[in-house]
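Input sequence (337 aa), recorded before submission:
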Amino acid sequence: MNPIALTMGDPAGIGGELSLRAWLAKAPCFAVLDDPERLRELARALRLDVPIVEIAELASASTAFPKALPVLPIRLPVPVQPGRPDPANAPAIIASIERATRFAQAGEASGVVTNPISKAALYRAGFAYPGHTEFLAALTGATGRQVMMLASPVLRVVPVTVHASLLASIQMLSTEMIVAVSRTADAAMRDEFGLARPRLAIAGLNPHAGEQGALGDEETTIISPAIAVLRAEGIDVSGPWPPDTMFTEAARARYDVAICMYHDQALIPLKTLDMRHGVNVTLGLPIIRTSPDHGTAFDIAGQGIADPASLLAALRLAADLAARRNPAVSPAPPPGR
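Predicted structure, token format:
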């Protein structure tokens, strides 16, 4: 299998430490697009025995990975201070994402895994996208088709509306949006997660799923019509489910993915149940993209206490998804590690 391209994320956050610890934890083969000298300094500061090797092309990563962490150099223009993001480093952060995406589009990388970025720092530097998901969609020509999924061993969730305020999310919610997102989720569950007939649970918007209109009519006017369309297409879909009970252990056994109406309705239960192993997966792209289900953690950056579990889960899921796209390829780790 081709190496995974791992982006640097915000260098003032925990991404560098996670990259170092992922190599130590014998993750699937990856190369990080980062500043090699800053990673060397970080490894020394944290007393992590991670040799760094600079590579000129991604294909060299497979040979280098058993003995050292392969790094495709992207130099940072200003020194990094842990916990203090600097907009001056934004061009390097963006270049890391762009280059990793090009590798995946060209088939040189089996997928892209993105370390956490600071949206606020990028915005100050003129970044024009709400986040990674929208930027990757633009880079790959998939704008409007991208769908965010959060996945862990205990729950998968897909929000219909994502990076918008709660008020704006409710105002923009439509039958068409629910149908489009659910179609993409159903296709991904079949094609990339290997489920022959995935079960989709559609969340309601209001308390008790509207209580037959007494607590809101969006379930009747927007959500139920979407469910009818999806059922007519042969998709196994149920709902609208009362949001306050659909994430219990018994309820989760009845579906494979929950389609939620807004960001926090999806992410709060997943992060509560299993944030440590949660993975952000972007569906609807022509490339595989996963990411840890957490942010930059500026408050603990540089302290050597960051947990790499979510990044490891993201790397392993990217390898698994790549293997399903190409069944002749094994996601096994490289020899010698």
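Checked by second reader. Confidence is low (pLDDT under 50) at residues 328-337.
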